[in-house]
């Protein structure tokens, strides 16, 4: 009798543990996008904050159920005639307004810069981001530059930071006529990042995760010059992930590690070495365009017609 009671109690305990584990797996699967994306609607900074003139642009796209949605972007024209354009794809947190210092830095290297907030971010339409939406919004941004701004693909560099790096890699694979690819502080895949965290190690991530961003499987198909930048003190995404991406990428390619650089401050920490790495990469990708800095040794969506608002001239400083 005692043995039967003990066995019954054991079975109940095991079933309870299994049920809790199953519920945890279901919760992780259902809420994964909320662990990955951290959008903010309010834009607290614009290019004018860092003394850059810009234009508000709205790209019209058709969503999966036939509704028209707007993607909000900024066009920041260069003051020179190099013709180089940089399509900037931001990370998973906040919105494009959090990147104005980076925009200033890259603009100073001679680029005209175009950046958008993905749907679900900032003033763009949409309820919540997803991997598919980020890819679609990047494609719509590319189409805007090529079809409406009439910019030659060979003049467009694709830049992505963090999760934007994964989006940039995906876009670059689909557009082998782009000028080049620059990715900073990015990862090999979302699953690889999740496995670094103890709380996720006991879950069958391969079965649960559908927002995968599998960059490591895509980079062997790249056909344009690529530059990987990563800080060695990045506690969110280890710099070895950029090294792995670099190793899988066909030539021409470069890897620049910034000693002491974190996830968001490699440009600040690296200073001139960071800027020189980008400038040197551009000069190598387009030899006819002189480098702007001294060279240092270095370690599917359908777009509709868009429209733009009036120019926003930065205040005189």
Write the layout of secondary structure elements.
Blueprint: H1 2-36, E1 38-39, E2 54-62, E3 68-76, E4 85-89, E5 93-94, H2 100-108, E6 112-116, H3 131-148, E7 156-161, H4 163-174, E8 180-184, H5 190-194, H6 205-208, H7 215-218, E9 226-231, H8 239-248, E10 253-258, H9 266-270, H10 272-285, E11 303-312
Parallel strand pairs: 1-5, 4-6, 4-7, 7-8, 8-9, 9-10
Antiparallel strand pairs: 2-3, 2-11, 3-6
Helix pairs in contact: 3-4
General description of the model:
The chain is α/β, with parallel strands linked by helices. It is globular, with a radius of gyration of 22 Å. A hairpin with a 5-residue loop joins β2 (about 55-60) and β3 (about 70-75). It contains ten helices and eleven strands. It has helices at about 1-35, 100-110, 130-150, 165-175, 190-195, 205-210, 215-220, 240-250, 265-270, 270-285, and strands at about 40, 55-60, 70-75, 85-90, 95, 110-115, 155-160, 180-185, 225-230, 255-260, 305-310.
